Amino acid sequence: MRQLKSVKAKDKKQREIVMVRDFPEVFPDDLSGLPPIREIKFRIELIPRAVSVAKSPYHLAPSELEELSRQLKELQDKGFIRPSSSPWGEPVLFVKKKDGSFRMCIDYRELNKLTVKNRYLLPRIDDLFNQLQGSQFFSKIDLRSGYHQLRVHEDDIPKTAFRTRCGHFEFTVMPFGLAGYYRRFIENISKVAKSLTILTQKCKTFDWGEEQKLTFQTLKDKLCNPPVLALPEGTEDFVVYCDASGIGLGCVLMQRGKVIACASRQLKIYEKNYTTHDLELDTVVFALKI
Q: Reverse transcriptase/retrotransposon-derived protein RNase H-like domain location, by residue (predicted)?
């Protein structure tokens, strides 16, 4: 049985919830060790002629080094990682969470480039939201340390290796990964993130200044705060608002005054020569194609 993340009730203590009281082994505060052996294990399939990659560790602040040592010990004690002699080795970095604590992440970008991508079709989030029309009650169930509840296949464990100043280790359970699907949920994302996306262009000098820091913080704030997208109700009263400027296109789908979806992008080079009238039409075409 999978272990589920604890549910925090506002007016009741956790032990007073009937489900939690009847199945305490399913609602632990933390995973104490390796998950049970299951039929399915995490696999990493490499492209033909792929060669192992090993990168030097990133520079870490003293506070991060202290946190690294603590988290490595915790992961080893649980059996989630073990010492490695693998030719693979990716660097470690830390992401600061909202509560001020640090999440240890492995920069697996080089490994990802050599991995055969899983083409399994995931459902679209907006399609799932549409299926919620008319619903009144919602439940959210999450796995406690969900990634760590799936073992890595023994043949692929060496590929998960990472390098630190404290040693060379590899994961026996699936390591934590990051997702990047937030674009559809942040209004004017292209305009807000422009100072960052410019840094990814070819022949551009990477200059991380105050403007970039402010943009990065703004994006984080927008991910954590309203306005929240509403669910559509029925199939009527939808209105699309479009607008264009000298730097980008934007559109918003609304229903009875509530934002249902939004999208935006920067102007392409040839579009910067468009007249105002053509830009407005360009925005309409952009909205209809989404």
A: 208-289
Q: Sort residue 100 into left (φ over 0), alpha (ψ -120 to 50) or beta.
A: left
Residue whose token pair is 């262009």:
201
DSSP letter, residue 35: P
Higher-pLDDT residue of 271 and 129 is 271
Q: Return the ∠ at Cα 120 (arms to 117 and 121), rounded to 5°.
A: 125
Written as six digits, the tokens of 178 are 């990051």
Tell me how far CA of residue 239 lies from CA of 86, 231, 242, in angstroms. Answer: 56, 14, 10
* Mean pLDDT, the chain, integer: 80
Full DSSP string of 183-226: GGGSTTHHHHTHHHHGGGSTT------HHHHHHHHHHHHHHHSS
At 11 the pLDDT is: 40
pLDDT digits (tens, 9 = 90+) for 227-246: 557 778 878 889 999 999 88
Q: Which residues of 46-68 are buried (b: 16+ CB within 10 A; e: fewer)?
A: eeeeeeebeeebeebeeebeebb
Is this structure's pTM higher than 0.85?
Answer: no
